[in-house]
Amino acid sequence: MEELREAVINGIDEHTEALNEISQEIWKNPELAFEEHSAHNVLTDFLEKSGFIVESQYKLKTAFRATYGECDTVPRKPHIVVICEYDALPSIGHACGHNLIAEVGIAAGLGIRDALAKSTENLGKLTILGTPAEEGGGGKIELIDQGVFDDVDVAMMAHPTPATYHKKPLLARSKLYIKYKGKASHAAGFPWEGVNALDAAVLCYQNISCLRQQFKPTWRVHGVIINGGVKPNIIPDITELEYSIRAPTDPERKILETKIISCIESAATATGCSVEYHTADKTYNAMIHNDTLCKLYEKNAISVGVEFTNDEEDKTIALGSSDMGNVSTVVPSIHPCFHMGTLAANHTRDFTTAAGAPEAQPFTLNQGKSLALTALDIYLQPKLLETIQADFEKDKKKLTIMV
Ligand SMILES: [Zn+2]
Ligand SMILES: [Zn+2]
């Protein structure tokens, strides 16, 4: 046991330079959802050279699957998936630090690979899964739909944030696209001939803002006007908005969505505009943190020197949403958050800078070790999967009752 733990730690420590280079390469070339071609190539090239069986462009153009070891034996052995993300944000680059998520995934993969190789018996299978488009595109949802998680026992990843928590809430999220149609006219010469679609968009925004007083503290609704008209002297005939709607559970999200739709429709009535709206086809589920997995991860993280943030209030504030939430509804999963040297918030320019700084490296490598050691615990004690599965079934039942 101790020998294999050492193999994990050494397997990561021996590659600190290469791991840093990988995340630097991704950080310097930020690519948007489903366009992460350079990141995909950097990661798959490295994994091929590292002895993994690599399937490039796996199911999606910028997804990949890299495997090591075997699970379909008698008795069946555990199959563990470590997830990489590598998409960036428009205009602010790697402001969510997904270059570091990729690095954690590869680091964990190297550590696990070395432990599996060192073991005298077959311990099981490791998959490193490259999942594109977490920022809105829901790449993992497409991979789930294509059966990628069907034979998986456990999935894990780690995400950089200002603080370190083993289970920070991730909210269920839907997106609404709204389009108001009015009638264009000369804004000074013949304003009475027009129907102002910008007024409808502004009222919609304000209706939702007024409703905020009645929001539960855990609800989040935020939007932008993506088309607000063309010229001041033309009464806008078309305006468009995009909104995200988030709540801790799916049923609660649906209640909130109904309230938001009333705000949208009443703005149309007040201005005489017509309105069309639709939800995005991919809804993110709330994250179910598997209790047994979380405890294993916490123990291992502490053993390699990870310090968890001791802020009870902050612990309950949601990080946002992720398609990892959808993964957590099909296989037992964890999504710990880790401090990487900055107190700046995700999706800020300061966070982008920190995600590319050398200070982030020790924190990132420690997460790779924490995930790999957690996987090792499961490979060495496959009976743990029974408790992990029991937690999963219990959590799923709770969700069904709530629906
Ligand atoms: Zn993000
Ligand atoms: Zn993120």
Structural descriptors:
403 residues; alpha/beta; Aminopeptidase; Alpha-Beta Plaits; six-stranded mixed sheet; four-stranded antiparallel sheet; 13 helices
Secondary structure elements and their pairing?
Blueprint: H1 2-13, H2 16-28, H3 37-49, E1 53-55, E2 64-69, E3 79-84, H4 98-118, E4 125-130, H5 139-145, E5 154-156, E6 159-161, E7 172-181, H6 197-211, E8 220-227, E9 238-247, H7 250-271, E10 274-279, H8 291-303, H9 312-315, H10 324-328, E11 333-334, E12 337-339, H11 349-355, H12 360-380, H13 384-402
Parallel strand pairs: 3-4, 3-5, 5-11, 6-12
Antiparallel strand pairs: 1-2, 2-4, 7-9, 7-10, 8-9
Helix pairs in contact: 1-4, 1-12, 2-4, 4-12, 6-7, 8-12
Bound molecules: zinc ion (ZN) (2 copies).
One zinc ion is lined by residues 96, 98, 134, 159.
Your description of this structure?
This protein has about 400 residues and is α/β, with parallel strands linked by helices. The protein folds into 2 domains: about 290 residues, 3-Layer(aba) Sandwich (Aminopeptidase); about 110 residues, Alpha-Beta Plaits. It is about 45% helix and about 15% strand. The strands form 3 sheets. It has a 6-stranded mixed beta sheet. It has a 4-stranded antiparallel beta sheet with strand order 8-9-7-10, covered by helices on one side. Strand 1 and strand 2 form a beta hairpin. Helix 1 packs across helix 4 and helix 1 packs antiparallel against helix 12. It is elongated and about 85 Å long. The protein starts with a helix and ends with a helix. The structure holds zinc ion (2 copies). One zinc ion binds next to loops. This is Peptidase M20 domain-containing protein 2. Belongs to the peptidase M20A family. GO terms for molecular function: dipeptidase activity.
